[in-house]
């Protein structure tokens, strides 16, 4: 038991002290342990460019709650930390920094650039790890990994080679997503679609001899330069006579065929579409089916290339404006209509992407997706909440081949080498010296998509491809915690790789949480200026307050609204806890052990002990169900509304005025309940619970490794607890009655209680009197003490106030509430008013003319009004 408690709680001092103590003692570290069941979470690795934001705070709070709960529950618990190299994001940051110094990456070359990237990682990449410590994350920092460390790189190279040898990784020319600003390929998952207001242009394509024409509709007139055909539906009667003929592409001298393809929709636009195989994924497929060539007309930077004729060198949007103007001047522009459609944008820079044909590396996903779908369908992996499995199914069932090459320098370089002498391509885990033909080799310039290495995270971090003890013990891992926005980015790929490489699922549960929004429900962003820095919240309110405010008040999987008001409320809870602990600490004797004597337990003691057991059961169930919100709320309600507001208050007479044995047993109960409550709360608020736990007697070195509370059957008293609940409800009812009748706090009342549990309440008269402001409290199982408390036939006041609750009732003499004459006059006046209103309503409803002419709704409202008035009159007669 620690020394004297300061008067006020200072989270800054407490949080720094305990985190350093925990880490120094090695409490976060895990080792394979045959005597314990494993529980493992791999952290979603934050980017090394990142700064802790509210999404990180929520995600890592959830993980830490689960880890601390399982650690206390007896599992060998590993929370594997690490960071992600984040190819695009990091390279963009470094390029921006170099630009401010007047440099480009081409100026210094690849090797020098990579040296700068590693220096960047060493300088900035550890910042977010320090910030996660501020949050209280109990990661095994001794095992911290990085997606480009030597072990992860070895795993990446081995998986690439294995998939290539199986034909599941290939290099080819296909239509891909391309960001002209980042100048790199993007996977489908890296494209965000946003609605944009634009136009639908109808353009006429003429026959070479102008004897016929066909009109197409397009949202991208700049791609006309790459058209190699026009397509119509084979069943469209308007165009059957034109199939097989040719037209001239406007603004070019290119003659292209009119082909038939069922992709065309006869009822959209003109029913005819221009086909640009190099710049549209659907057109690419039409081109493959119909034998149309692919003509790429944009450079990597989004400018028109040498195939654009007079438009060469123009930016794509300048080209659009020029083409539209020229089409209008030549008479080929038939119509322009306003049109809003979804446009693909880069998930990093948010600029519009181009779809274009390019030679890239791909993973063949269809054969890998089926086992991954089956694992979820058959329940080997479950999503919590279950509805997010649909997001997974929708993505995996319609998955296309994954473009994994990126035109960047920072990342895992693709392990492919080319021989310019013989044209051979070699894929190897280790760099070959020379080509078998004796020629020199050059390595592929591209790097792998960041998500390739992230997809291996559950097993690469545990030592694969080596058969480490950690891999054998902790894999498959247990729970994956993530936001719903990266189910297809990351979760799907981990499942795919886990099954393909390890032959096992990577985890059994995917716990999906929502996004953190502002108090108005808006997404936090720089443009709105509504972002909340979690480090500022920690500075102002403490990490425990931030954590608790993030896990309470929102349903599982739903977006949450955050405001500083929530953090302030959580801080108030911390202060409540601290004051309760300080109150107990002032009553405790240094070095004394406190044991509960069951023979001396009072009814309130039995009630709070029973409620503790019920709360332990409920909280444990909710945590096992991943219902963190309700688990936290149940602990909060138990501590604030039951332990602090009732149990401590009811124990005060024994602590301050009882005999020594009575005081000691009261303290024993309070200390036991408080210590167990701190254990229940610890996963959510680790710092303050450790601090307060250490102020209690016989608590051990740390709450972190204390056993999770269990129900003690010998301390459960169901019947006594039910009787106490009835008494508490009566006390609340009595308090409400005082408030409604505006009885001054200083005015004492008399209270006569009738209950079949009267014997159980014996000795509690003083407690009841203090809680309801009564100078006289009598308890009986008979109602002879109640006096006369009924109304005469005329409805005038003649007795006492009657309070009725389930299993218990009470009478309060009117004279003890107020001046009897004034109270009688007030009630009689109210009775008279109600009788008058009732008479008017009855008269109206007896009027045949009103019933015949008034709308049915009005008549029904009048009947309802009469019923309510009668109910009010009956109630006031009964109560008085």
Q: Can you count the beta strands?
A: 29
Classification by helices and strands: alpha/beta
Mean pLDDT: 92
Distance between the termini: 54 Å
Instruction: Please indicate the percent range of residues in DSSP E strands (runs of 2 or more).
Output: 15-25%
Radius of gyration, rounded? 37 Å
Question: What does the overall shape look like?
Answer: globular
The number of distinct helices, counting runs of at least 4 residues, comes to 28
The main pleated sheet reads as:
4 strands, antiparallel
Percent of residues in helices comes to 40-55%
Kindly report the spatial arrangement of strands forming the biggest sheet: 6-5-14-16
Q: What is the chains' assembly state?
A: single chain
Spans of at least 5 consecutive residues whose pLDDT stays below 50 are: 786-798
Give a concise summary:
With 880 residues, the chain is of the alpha/beta class.
Note down, in words, how this protein is organized.
By secondary structure, the protein is an alpha/beta fold. The chain has 28 helices and 29 strands. The strands form ten sheets. Strands 6-5-14-16 form a four-stranded antiparallel beta sheet. Strands 10-11-9-12 form a four-stranded mixed beta sheet, with helices on one face. Helix 18 (603-624) packs across helix 22, helix 19 (628-657) packs antiparallel against helix 20 and helix 20 (660-681) runs antiparallel to helix 21. It is globular and about 110 Å long.
């Amino acid at each position: 038991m620690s020394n004297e408690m300061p008067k006020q709680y200072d989270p800054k001092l407490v949080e720094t002290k305990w985190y350093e103590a925990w880490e120094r003692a090695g409490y976060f570290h895990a080792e394979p342990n045959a005597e314990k069941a494993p529980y493992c979470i791999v952290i979603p690795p934050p980017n090394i460019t990142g700064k802790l934001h509210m999404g990180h705070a929520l995600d890592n709070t959830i993980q830490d709650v689960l880890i601390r709960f399982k650690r206390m529950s007896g599992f060998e618990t590993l929370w594997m930390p690490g960071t992600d190299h984040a190819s695009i994001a990091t390279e963009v940051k470094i390029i921006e920094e170099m630009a401010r110094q007047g440099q480009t990456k081409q100026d210094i070359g690849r090797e020098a650039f990579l040296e700068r990237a590693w220096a960047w990682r060493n300088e900035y990449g550890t910042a977010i790890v320090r910030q996660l410590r501020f949050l209280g994350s109990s990661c095994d920092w001794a095992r911290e990994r990085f997606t480009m460390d030597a072990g992860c790189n070895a795993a990446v190279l081995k998986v690439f080679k294995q998939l290539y040898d199986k034909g599941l990784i290939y290099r080819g020319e296909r239509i891909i997503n391309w960001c002209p600003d980042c100048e790199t390929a993007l996977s489908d998952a890296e494209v965000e679609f946003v609605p944009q207001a634009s136009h639908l242009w109808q353009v006429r394509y003429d026959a070479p001899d102008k004897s016929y024409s066909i009109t197409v509709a397009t949202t991208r007139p700049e791609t006309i330069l790459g058209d190699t055909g026009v397509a119509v539906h084979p069943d469209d009667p308007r165009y059957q006579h034109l199939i097989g003929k040719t037209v001239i592409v406007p603004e070019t001298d290119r003659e292209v065929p009119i082909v038939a393809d069922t992709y065309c929709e006869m009822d959209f636009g003109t029913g005819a579409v221009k086909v640009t195989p190099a710049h549209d994924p659907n057109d690419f497929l039409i081109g493959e089916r119909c034998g149309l060539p692919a003509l790429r007309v944009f450079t990597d930077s989004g400018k028109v290339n040498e195939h654009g004729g007079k438009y060469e060198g123009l930016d794509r949007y300048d080209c659009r404006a020029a083409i539209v103007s020229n089409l209008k001047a030549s008479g080929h522009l038939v119509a322009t209509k306003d049109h809003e459609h979804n446009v693909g944008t880069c998930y990093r820079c948010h600029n519009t992407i181009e779809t274009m044909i390019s030679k890239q590396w791909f993973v063949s996903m269809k054969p890998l997706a089926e086992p991954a779908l089956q694992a979820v369908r058959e329940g080997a992996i479950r999503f919590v909440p279950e509805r997010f499995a649909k997001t997974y199914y929708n993505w995996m069932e319609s998955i296309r081949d994954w473009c994994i090459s990126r035109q960047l320098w920072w990342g895992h370089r693709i392990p492919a080498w080319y021989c310019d002498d013989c044209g051979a391509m070699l894929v190897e885990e280790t760099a070959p010296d020379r080509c078998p033909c004796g020629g020199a080799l050059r390595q592929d310039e591209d790097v792998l998509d960041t998500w390739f290495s992230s997809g291996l995270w559950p097993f690469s971090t545990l030592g694969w491809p080596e058969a480490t003890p950690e891999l054998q013990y902790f894999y498959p891992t247990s729970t994956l915690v993530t936001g719903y926005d990266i189910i297809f980015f990351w979760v799907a790929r981990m499942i795919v790789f886990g099954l393909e490489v390890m032959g096992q699922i990577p985890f059994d549960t995917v716990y999906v949480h929502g996004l953190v929004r502002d108090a108005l429900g808006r997404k936090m962003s720089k443009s709105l200026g509504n972002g909340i820095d979690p480090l500022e919240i920690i500075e102002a309110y403490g990490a425990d307050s931030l954590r608790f405010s993030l896990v309470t008040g929102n349903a599982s999987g739903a977006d949450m609204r955050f405001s500083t008001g929530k953090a302030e409320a959580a801080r108030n809870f911390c202060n409540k806890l601290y004051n309760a602990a300080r109150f107990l600490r002032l009553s405790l004797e240094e070095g004394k052990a406190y044991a509960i004597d069951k023979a001396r337990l009072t009814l309130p003691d039995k009630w709070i002990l029973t409620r503790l057991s019920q709360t332990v059961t409920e909280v444990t169930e909710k945590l096992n169900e991943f219902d963190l919100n309700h688990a936290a709320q149940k602990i909060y309600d138990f501590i604030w509304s039951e332990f602090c507001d009732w149990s401590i208050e009811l124990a005060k007479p024994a602590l301050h005025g009882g005999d020594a044995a009575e005081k000691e047993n009261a303290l024993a109960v309070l200390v036991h309940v408080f210590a167990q409550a701190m254990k229940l709360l610890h996963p959510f608020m680790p710092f303050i619970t450790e601090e307060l736990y250490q102020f209690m007697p016989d608590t051990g070195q740390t709450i972190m490794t204390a056993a999770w509370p269990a129900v003690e059957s010998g301390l459960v008293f169901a019947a006594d607890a039910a009787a106490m609940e009835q008494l508490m409800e009566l006390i609340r009812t009595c308090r409400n009655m005082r408030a409604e009748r505006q009885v001054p706090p200083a005015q004492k009342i008399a209270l006569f209680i009738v209950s079949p549990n009267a014997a159980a309440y014996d000795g509690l008269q003083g407690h009841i009197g203090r809680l309801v402001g009564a100078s006289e409290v009598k308890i009986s199982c008979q109602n002879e003490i109640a006096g006369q408390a009924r109304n005469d036939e005329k409805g005038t006041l003649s007795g006492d106030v009657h309070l009725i609750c389930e299993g218990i009732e009470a009478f309060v003499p009117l004279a003890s509430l107020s001046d009897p004459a004034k109270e009688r006059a007030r009630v009689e006046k109210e009775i008279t008013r109600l009788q008058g209103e009732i008479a008017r309503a009855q008269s109206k409803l007896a009027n045949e003319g009103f019933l015949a002419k008034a709308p049915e709704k009005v008549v029904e409202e009048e009947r309802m009004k009469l019923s309510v008035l009668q109910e009010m009159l009956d109630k006031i007669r009964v109560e008085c």
